[in-house]
Amino acid sequence: MKHINLIIVALFISVSTFAQSKQFVGIGINPEIRSNSVPSLGFGLLYENQITKHHGFEIDINYRSYRLDYLYTNPLSGVADLSFKVRENYLSIPVYYKFYSNVVNLSAGLTFDYFVNADNLSEITNIEMSSYKLDPRFFVGCIFKVGKKFQLSNKFAIEPELYYNPIFSYGYSYYGASVKLKYSL
Questions:
Q1: Is 169 left (phi over 0), alpha (psi -120 to 50) or beta?
Q2: Which end of the chain is more exposed for a tag (fewer CB within 10 A), N or C?
């Protein structure tokens, strides 16, 4: 009988804990810099679940890009090096644990970046990029964020964040800021 009472008490506690759950969906813009590159602007969608007062998780789907400058020498004509620019485009899915406080919100998690394609940004008319491939196309990193949520209304909030996102095994990092507009479900 004591075990049944304990199970019932534990069930009520767990239900009340999840009853406090707050869910959000939103959009964000992400100005960022990849090490040794120029700033770029990304954007994304988010889902956030604040399970308790201080703990939750967030999953984003973001577009991010990275601009590279290459030098090209034509092996047939021996023409001097020509410079051209390429933008690599990625789909990034960060998954975070989020700690909520009255001062700031702290997040840490993993990012999964997938190389989608590349665009030729050069204005040189006699050079055409026929193919551009990366192997591997999938990259894993970690991410650390600090942010502060500001309530705009009962349903809307805005959350500016600063983040650092090193990519494992590749010697580069993303860092930047984001601003997210969130809607409470």
A1: left
A2: N
* Residue whose token pair is 């644990």: 97
Rounded Cα distance, 93 and 113, in Å: 6
**Dist. CA 67–CA 123, nearest whole Å:** 15
Provide the token pair at 163: 């983040």
For residue 113, what are its two tokens?
Answer: 């970046």
Question: What is the structure's pLDDT at 16?
Answer: 47
Contacts of 29 (CB under 8 A, 6+ apart): 41, 42, 43, 178, 179
Q: Which residues contact 162 (CB under 8 A, 6 or more apart)?
A: 145, 146, 147, 176, 177
In this predicted structure, the answer to whether residue 164 has a pLDDT above a threshold of 80 is: yes
Measured in whole angstroms, how far is the alpha carbon of residue 74 from the centre of its chain?
Answer: 38
Q: Return the CATH number of the domain spanning residue range 23-184.
A: 2.40.160.20
- CA quadruple 13, 14, 15, 19: dihedral sign: positive
Q: How would you class 165 by CB atoms within 10 Å of its CB: exposed for 0-12, middle for 13-18, buried for 19 or more?
A: buried
Residue ranges covered by each domain of the chain: 23-184
